[in-house]
Amino acid sequence: MIAVSNLxxxxxxxxxxxxxxxKGPPPGISHDDTGGSWPAWNGTETVAxxxxxxxxxxxxxxxxxxxxxxxxVLVPAGTFLMGSPEDEEGRRVDRPRHGPGPIExxxxxxxxxxxxxxxxxxxxxxxxxxxxxxxxxxxxxxxxPVWGVNWNQAQAFCRAAAARTGRAVRLPTEAEWEFACxxxxxxxxxxxxxxxxxxxxxWASYDGKFGSxxxxxxxxxxxxxxxxxxxxxxxxxxxxxxxxxxxxxxxxKDPRGPxxxxxxxxxxGCRASRxxxxxxxxxxxxxxxxxxxxxxxxxxxxxIFRRAAKGSVPPGREEAGR
Length: 322
Description:
alpha+beta; paralog of FGE (formylglycine-generating enzyme); five-stranded antiparallel sheet; four-stranded mixed sheet; 16 strands; 18% helix
């Protein structure tokens, strides 16, 4: 992974807000404490239909300056099964260092997300990253996903983008990422179960040989999932907020992962990954300051808040339409 040389001033400011390897909850996640509840996705409606029912805009655009923008789409609140069934092809289990095994990595469990949010339509590109954070990781073109970034650098982008736009910009939680990736599906990939299905929606090493697909692709060359998100499988792995940890064995509401840890979660696989490592449920992780892996990138989410005082603006519309 290529380090960003000019991040020191920004990282010094950011260190007051978050420690990359310390204790406490993931940064950048706020509570909507103004009362009320959001409607849940009904399992069949489109994003546009849900947006109308929730009185939210279906899309959002962040203007980063110099005519550089970042497009986001609405992801509804809802409930889904996170993880994978025991018979899913390519399911990941780990061997323990000591004692009996194996260790379940993708334990199937019910998760409820009580709040909708906006998620980047594409992975953050080199052009977007360099517009916000001066001194960019190595890349081969403005419309390619930024790659070679560690978790700390992704966080630096989120904080700088939030300062520029006045929005609550952050990385997705692991649960938000999988819910958005699946878009209502329960198959290995959001497009189906086969390698042929993967080829429709993501760039990876389809032949099962790690690293056989050369180079990255510009964002958006494949079809999106049902909620309008591109490249959720392959191209670059995507950092999430969470520390790595075991899944709970019972239903969870708005999970955020462990309060501390050594590694942060990455999702989605990359262009070098085998199909099994691009599945919707596949989990990987790395230290937040890891600088030796070139295939990591990210996408962002923007939180939605209700207006505290009663007024004529429908709930959430002030966030989506500002």
